[in-house]
Specification:
Oligomer: single chain
Low-confidence stretches: none
Number of helices: 8
Shape: globular
Structural class: alpha/beta
Radius of gyration: 18 Å
């Protein structure tokens, strides 16, 4: 079996707006932008490397994930992909995609996953050979997105599905929310020593102005409270030992919304 060459795959993290991230993915298939909160920082990152983007992949309809689309399309004549279920609330799409859609080859191959909860048509882009998940506002580093449209049960099903990805998967989420997510995690899981260690690491990174994204899925499983809703120790900590996993997740989300 020929293994894909990960050295041919490069990800650039681009801070946008006040706390958003866009990502630039360079692979043998070309250069893709994943979400476009605003155009200028993305153009600057591409120009600095002498790259031309040919694709923009949008995850969901919130403006802070696609506000730069028109400027990027005008500059690069790129093709815009996005979820068919939200096409009526997105810039004009060249390709409306459904869950299960695949494109690219080798290390540049990606799959479209349906990850409802934050919005109903939210999708994620998963590059299995590159061990990269661009999850935007579904699974977030140390947290998950607010339930603006979906239900707690839908978001829990999303997270439960993502829990089954390989442990080495890197989670590239759409915002720099890790420090606030960490403070909440410590409030509901204070005896978690791995979480305590990670909290210090997050504080050090943010003190230097460095991103805390991405994070490996196996570390998220140990420290992200929303991924731990099925665990007996989390249920005990919340006083919900007989509750279903979805009920525990719903309680965690309720507490985070008022934290």
């Amino acid at each position: 079996m020929i293994m894909p060459d990960k050295t041919l795959f490069e990800i650039i993290t681009v801070p946008c707006l006040s706390d958003n991230y866009a990502y630039i993915v360079k692979s043998p298939d070309g250069v893709a932008i994943i979400d476009a909160p605003e155009a200028a920082p993305i153009i600057a990152a591409l120009d600095a490397r002498g790259w031309e983007a040919d694709t923009l992949l949008i995850t969901h309809h919130h403006h802070d994930h696609h506000g730069g689309t028109r400027a990027l399309r005008d500059r690069y004549k790129l093709k815009v992909f996005g979820p068919r279920a939200e096409a009526d609330r997105l810039p004009d799409l060249d390709v409306a995609v459904d869950p299960g859609f695949e494109s690219g080859s080798g290390v540049g191959r990606y799959q479209v996953l349906h990850v409802p909860g934050h919005t109903l048509g939210h999708i994620a882009y998963y590059y299995p050979e590159a061990s990269a998940l661009f999850s935007a506002d579904s699974l977030m580093v140390m947290g998950c997105g607010r339930l603006f449209e979906g239900t707690a049960a839908q978001m829990w099903n999303t997270l439960d599905m993502l829990l089954n990805l390989p442990d080495e998967t890197q989670i590239y989420s759409g915002h720099e929310y890790t420090a606030s997510n960490m403070r909440f995690a410590l409030s509901v899981d204070p005896d978690n020593t791995t979480l305590q260690t990670r909290a210090a690491e997050v504080e050090a990174l943010r003190a230097k102005g460095q991103p805390t994204v991405p994070a490996r899925l196996d570390l998220e499983k140990k420290t992200n409270p929303f991924l731990r809703a099925s665990l007996a120790e989390m249920k005990r900590a919340l006083g919900m030992v007989d509750a279903t996993d979805a009920q525990v997740f719903a309680e965690l989300r309720r507490r985070k919304d008022t934290f």
